[in-house]
Design goal:
Blueprint lengths: L2 E2 L13 E4 L6 E4 L5 E5 L2 H7 L4 E7 L3 E5 L4 E4 L5 E6 L5 E6 L5 E5 L15 E5 L24 H15 L5
Parallel strand pairs: 1-6, 4-11
Antiparallel strand pairs: 2-3, 3-6, 4-5, 5-10, 7-8, 8-9, 9-10
Length: 173
C-alpha cells in the first residue's frame, strides 16, 4: 500500500504532481508523478462498484503515492485472487486497485483525481479491458480506436500467469 506522510509537500519540497480524494474528503492522497497510463475497465466488478459503465484507473509507482489523510478509513477488499481494491469506509468511493503480480504499482481510480491539482500532462486512456463484460443494453462503447481486450492484454495476462506459477511452485507453500 502507499506510504503515509502528513503534508501535501513532498520530501524535496516540490508540490505534488497530483492529489486525489474520496467523495466525502476523509481519504486524501498525493502523488509525486502523474500516472504512466490510464485504462478503462469494463468488468462487472468495476461497473457494480462504480455504478457506471466502466471505471478508469491511472497507474502509479507505489513509491510515488502517499496517503495524506484518512488512511485509517482506507479499507481493503479482494474480489479475486489477483488483486486488492481499496475504498473509503465512510462514503464507499472506490480508490485504488493493486495487482498482486505488480507489487511496485498501484492503480488509482481517475474519478478521485483533483483535476485542479494536476501538474503536468495526464496521459490519454490507452485501452479498454474486459469488454466482453461491458454493459450491452444501455451503453455503447464509442469507436475511439483504442485497443480492446476481452479480459487483460496478452502481455498482462502472461504476467499474471507467471506470478501464479511462482506461487504454486514446490517449496513456496
Amino acid at each position: 500500500m502507499a506510504s503515509t506522510r502528513s503534508s501535501l509537500t513532498l520530501v524535496d519540497n516540490k508540490p505534488p504532481a497530483l492529489t486525489g480524494s474520496c467523495m466525502c474528503g476523509k481519504v486524501t492522497y498525493s502523488s509525486s508523478v502523474v500516472p504512466s497510463d490510464l485504462t478503462n475497465c469494463h468488468c462487472e466488478t468495476c461497473r457494480r462498484l462504480s455504478g457506471a459503465p466502466f471505471l478508469t484507473f491511472g497507474q502509479f509507482p507505489v513509491s510515488a503515492v502517499t496517503w495524506t489523510s484518512g488512511e485509517g478509513s482506507v479499507k481493503k477488499t479482494s474480489y479475486s485472487n489477483i488483486a486488492d481494491r481499496t475504498h473509503c469506509a465512510e462514503c464507499g468511493s472506490p480508490i485504488s486497485m493493486s495487482y498482486k503480480c505488480e507489487p511496485d504499482f498501484i492503480s488509482m481510480t481517475a474519478g478521485t483525481f483533483n483535476e485542479d491539482s494536476i501538474r503536468g500532462q495526464l496521459p490519454r486512456v490507452k485501452q479498454h479491458i474486459f469488454v466482453d463484460e461491458k454493459v450491452k443494453t444501455w451503453y455503447e462503447l464509442p469507436d475511439d480506436r483504442l485497443p480492446r481486450y476481452s479480459s487483460f492484454s496478452s502481455a498482462f495476462q502472461k504476467k499474471i500467469e507467471g506470478w501464479k506459477k511462482v506461487l504454486t511452485s514446490p517449496g513456496l507453500g
